[in-house]
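Before drawing any conclusions, I needed to go through one protein's amino acid sequence and its backbone structure tokens, quoted below without any editing.
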Amino acid sequence: MKIIVTLPVEERHKNYLEQGREEDTFVYASGAEVTKELVQSADVIIGNVPPAMIAGSTNLKWMQLNSAGTDGYTAEGILPADALLTNATGAYGLAVSGHLLGTLLCLMKRLNSYCENQKEHQWKDAGNVTSIYGSRTLVVGLGDIGGEFAQRMHALGSTVVGIRRNKTEKPEYLENLYQMDALKEEAAKADIVATCLPGTKETQKVFDRAFFAAMKQGSFFLNVGRGSAVDSEALAEALNSGHLAGASVDVTDPEPLPADHPLWDAKNLLITPHVSGGYHLQETFERIVRISKENLEHFVKGEPLRNIVDFETGYRKL
């Protein structure tokens, strides 16, 4: 079996992945080394490669993504009809939930304003602040990332409610769990709305002008899901009008954000260039490698894999 690995692994990772698989051929490639010819020769791919390189493959039996998002891989004609696709759900919650907390506290404590004052050498009080304790938080998308953030907010004294696509048992750290039809009603009650939604047809521009108008006056909006879920101009308007107290976006539509886009000049907005996840936290990468090894072992034994993706929805199967 030929296994192509595009993760930026070290020797220790290679030894770990190859342990017990002496009969298989492992090929490690990155950047320009990842060619269509190489991709088409693989029985297994561990790591993301351009979807166009996969199309037409007759050998591929399973692909393990290094991302939680599956954009481009579930389209018809990309993977062979009988190939399995798994994602990296479970790897990113620690890093991205920490990013959400950091940006939220920055906004609530007006640290962004003090950074601007410092640049101008101004010793100036920026005014009253707010607290996570006693707040109400709405988390939209309760996968690995949303669930980790919800737990942390609960631990810090916020009343947390969640929204997810399917009806499931409510975790103990949530006050209530709803589906998408309750989005605007719950947003109107929340001091903080955090979205971790993936990019699918169903999530396009979910957060539009009507949504921001429904949000509570003086509330905060955070997005670490996909930029396509947000009407960027509507968000800028809600911030500039003072309806929202602040917002943080790690993802935008489009990406990279053009230099003349109105979001850059929106009031009390923190923009980060899609860096909350990735490999910025080493533990994230270690988790991806562990998920890949676990699934490789299951695959060769014909056992069920972790994080199998539903091609119809683009989500991990529950």
Observations:
- The mean pLDDT is 96.
